[in-house]
TrEMBL record:
PROSITE patterns: LRR (PS51450). Keywords: Leucine-rich repeat, Nucleus, Repeat. One of its GO terms (cellular component) is cytoplasm. It comes from the Eukaryota. SMART domains: LRR_TYP. Pfam families: LRR_8, PH_LRR1. InterPro entries: Leu-rich_rpt (IPR001611), Leu-rich_rpt_typical-subtyp (IPR003591), LRR_dom_sf (IPR032675), LRR_domain-containing (IPR050216), PIF1/LRR1_PH (IPR057437). The keyword Nucleus applies. This is PIF1/LRR1 pleckstrin homology domain-containing protein. Residues 1-121 form the PIF1/LRR1 pleckstrin homology domain. PANTHER family: LEUCINE-RICH REPEAT PROTEIN 1 (PTHR48051:SF52), PTHR48051.
Length: 424
């Protein structure tokens, strides 16, 4: 049984001599085993710690020698083992959580003096230099020739940049780097994103600029990234639309969408309450969704789009007594019924055509289409003019589900009283 991790050895007696420990944690290999030649399965079991400075290793007897375990953060690869003699605390971090758990259970067996015949113990041999080398946390690959094919990516990476390597899809080995905080795959040939980012639950920055992305899948917009992703750069792709599920990325602070082919922004954008920086230069935006009025930004750049001429407010009243089809579709959205293309057949298009009113309800054919203008200075502290004449007034369209919503919106389009749109 052997794991590699960072270990800090704390001597509990030092404070009583008014002494402070110098230094910090070092990369170490921890193993549990018997000394070579110590009588087969009967010899004493030791925990051995090898570091770069002491590759032969310090040994701690295990049987009845552990005072306490601290395992509250074992899921994050951290734990502490408190020995009685010598009075040392081994503070472990940067370990693989699964390996650490099984390592601790073997240590526990050794401490209790249980039968270890079913456990693979190690030989307590000195560690090699590579085993106690501090692991890399950053990696940059900017050339196809340097792309690791046989060696793999170190699991300790927190920042990975792989640019200009003509990658057509995200390497599944990258999706297992659970320590990653920042992933930069700009300048490749990515066409799609994988659905499952569930292991990258610490990722806060994702740069995917200058690829060939045409769609952001639903799976990407759910899972841990909803809570962790602060920065998303999708500039220079081929996106034509963003699904309503995209707004589930509620932790986003910075969103870059420059140089795509977007005709509109999702109507649930007000759900992303942390957003402070939006840039969508050089798209095909014609109007902004009404929910945009509820954002509170620091910087906004929507120049180089195809905004329609903003005129006086106009409403097209299409409120009718709803058809059975519309009632059924509304119920599906309201109760978040999960459906597939197989279930609903040709109605899929109808279901996806739903427009979200600012009150949160979804409306289909029966609605009021209200076109008005939005002074962008109302939603952001810094704004770039949307055209060459220096205008900061953008057209804004709302779909309102009922007469009362219509009247409410007419009275005050900037009202923060509107419920935040939820996404089904
Ligand atoms: Zn409404």
């Amino acid at each position: 049984m052997r794991i590699c991790c960072d270990v800090d050895v704390v001597n509990r007696l030092l404070p009583s001599f008014n002494m402070k420990k110098k230094g910090k944690s070092s990369r170490a290999q921890l193993s549990v085993g018997r000394k070579p030649g110590a009588g087969g399965n009967t010899g004493e079991v030791f925990l051995m710690m090898c570091t770069k400075l002491d590759r032969n290793g310090a040994k701690y007897q295990l049987r009845n020698n552990i005072e306490q375990y601290f395992t509250k953060f074992v899921q994050q690869g951290k734990a502490t083992i408190r020995f009685q003699e010598p009075p040392h605390d081994l503070v472990i971090c940067q370990a693989d959580p699964i390996q650490l758990k099984s390592f601790l259970s073997v240590v526990r067996l050794g401490h209790q003096g249980n039968d270890l015949s079913k456990v693979t113990l190690s030989s307590l041999a000195p560690a090699s230099a590579k085993q106690v080398e501090r692991q890399r946390t950053k990696m940059v690959v900017t050339n196809r020739k340097d792309y690791p094919i046989t060696t793999g990516f170190p699991i300790s990476l927190t920042s990975l940049r792989v640019s200009d390597c003509t990658l057509k899809r995200i390497d599944s080995r990258m999706l297992r780097l659970y320590n990653l905080r920042s992933l930069d795959l700009s300048g490749n040939h990515l066409k799609t994103l994988p659905d499952d980012f569930s292991r990258l639950d610490r990722l806060s920055e994702l740069r995917l600029a200058n690829n060939h992305l045409e769609d952001i899948p639903v799976g990407f917009c759910s899972g841990p990234l909803c809570q962790t992703l602060n920065l998303l750069d999708l500039s220079g792709n081929r996106l034509k639309m963003l699904r309503s599920e995209f707004c589930q990325l509620e932790a986003l602070v910075t969103l870059k969408l420059d140089s795509n082919e977007l005709c509109c922004l999702p109507h649930g954008i007000n759900r992303m309450t942390q957003l402070r920086f939006i840039s969508a230069v050089g798209n095909k935006l014609q109007t902004l969704p009404a929910s945009f009025t509820q954002l509170r930004l620091e910087n906004l750049d929507l120049s180089g789009n195809e905004f329609i001429q903003a005129g006086p407010s106009s409403a097209i009243d299409r409120l009718r007594f709803p058809s059975l089809l519309e009632c059924a579709a509304k119920a599906i959205h309201k109760h978040r019924v999960v459906y597939t293309e197989e279930d609903v057949g040709h109605l899929l298009r109808y279901l996806r055509s739903g427009k979200r009113c600012l009150c949160g309800n979804v409306c289909f054919t029966s609605h009021v289409h209200y076109l008005t203008t939005l002074d962008l200075r109302q939603v952001t502290s810094e704004v770039t003019a949307i055209d060459q004449r220096g205008s900061v007034i953008a057209p804004c369209e709302a779909f309102l589900c009922s007469r009362s919503c219509f009247e409410k919106y007419q009275r005050n389009p900037y009202s923060s009283l509107w419920k935040k749109s939820s996404v089904t």
